[in-house]
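Field guide to reading this record: the first block holds the primary sequence, the second block holds the structure written as discrete tokens, and the final block holds curator observations. Each block starts with its own label. This record concerns PDZ domain-containing protein, catalogued under organism Arion vulgaris.

BLOCK 1 — SEQUENCE
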Amino acid sequence: NSTPEILTIPIVKGPMGFGFTIADSPYGQRVKQILDQPRCKNLAEGDLLVLINSINVSEYPHQQTVQVLKECKQELETII
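BLOCK 2 — STRUCTURE
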């Protein structure tokens, strides 16, 4: 059994977003797909989003998490 690891990963928002997509899971919002691997180098598909810029999104529904991501200006700090 592997123990979940919490990481702080800064990701810079580009003109088309952050370079990853998210999807619902039984445990919250997970990274569904990495679209820009160089920008998301420490992020992996299946990672669970816990905090976005100090906002706890662990129990947020999908649309609310998407809104938090949209409101980020430049550098997104996500703890997964």
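BLOCK 3 — OBSERVATIONS
The chain has a mean pLDDT of 90.
The first strand starts at residue 8 and ends at 12.
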